[in-house]
Amino acid sequence: MSTVTTTAAVAAQLERTLAVFVRELPEPPAVFEGGSTVRGWSNQHSDLDLYAILPQVREPADGEFTKIPCGAAEGHFYRRALVDGAVEGDLQVWHRVQVESLLAAMHISAVHESRVVGIALTNYEVDFLGRLWHGRAVSGGDEVAHWQRRLHASDARQVMADRSLRLADNAVVDAVGQLETDDVKSATLAALRAHGHAVDAALAVCGEFSASGKWRARRVEEARPAQFTPDEYWAVETLRDYHAQPVAWIENVLVICQNIAASVEL
Which of 15, 111, 211, 265 is most buried by a 10 A CB count? Predict the structure, then answer.
């Protein structure tokens, strides 16, 4: 598959596809591209991750769309594959009201009050925000830039960091309990999970957030969080010193997670 991001053919298909949602399509509609093709990480198997933000969205007659509920945002958004010859993509269609409500949740005061804001986010919402942060406008550049400014000025980094720290805490508790019952294999997996979430918390403060660990190593290389070097991160991710003393390795990783958590300011 071609790694070329957007083409005239893709733009034309986008316009035809988005027209099923509104009686009158904005000119131009706000559409941005995110993911590996924008970050320079793509390969021949990568597809396009496209997001449209429309002023109004009606139920599409096109049965190829999947209706997906939101968590922190209101309502639901729509998703479908977008294929044009050799170019393949994934298109999500969001209502402006949903984006407004999602950004409204990106305030650290809400985290301090309830500490549930980040957990309420779905993986789709996390990825939407992460891809908008680094996104590139396909059309409607002024509006896309408006949403990016709103996101960058929000407390999204702290909210995402808190979300990852809570997930890391849960995994640490799992690992401790599993070690107490000599379930070393399960404790190993829990420690790795805790470390991944702790690393994600440090990355979030740098404006790097994703619901997936797929590009975590690339994010660490680019963001260079203060809490660890890329080599220190990779040593844990690859279990470099694990086999000599597995239990000691697990205990050390849990300490690393706690140290990262203590250094992340919310």
Answer: 111
AA identity, residue 195? H
Question: Per-residue b/e over 63-73, b at no fewer than 16 CB within 10 Å?
Answer: eebeeeebbbb
* 87-95 and 136-139 strand pairing: unpaired
The model's pTM: 0.88
Contact 57, 95 (CB under 8 A): yes
- CA distances in angstroms from 39 to 46, 131, 142, 160, listed in the order given: 12, 10, 21, 20
CA 194 to chain centre: 17
> Token pair of 242, please?
């694990």
| CA separation for the pair 126, 210 (Å, rounded) | 6
Q: What is the pLDDT of residues 108-144, one digit of tens each?
A: 876 666 666 667 899 999 999 999 999 999 889 999 9
Q: What is the dihedral of CA 91, 95, 96, 100, to 10 degrees?
A: -100
Task: Give the whole-angstrom CA distance, residue 136 versus residue 143.
Answer: 12
The DSSP code sequence of the chain is: -------HHHHHHHHHHHTTT-SS--SS-EEEEESHHHHT---TT--EEEEEEES-----S-TTPEEEE-SSSSSEEEEEEEEETTEEEEEEEEEHHHHHHHHHT--HHHHHHHS-HHHHS-HHHHHHHHHHHT-EEEE-HHHHHHHHHHHHHTTHHHHHHHHHHHHHHHHHHHHHHHHHTT-HHHHHHHHHHHHHHHHHHHHHHTT---S-STTHHHHHHHH--TT--HHHHHHHHTTTTTTT-HHHHHHHHHHHHHHHHHH---
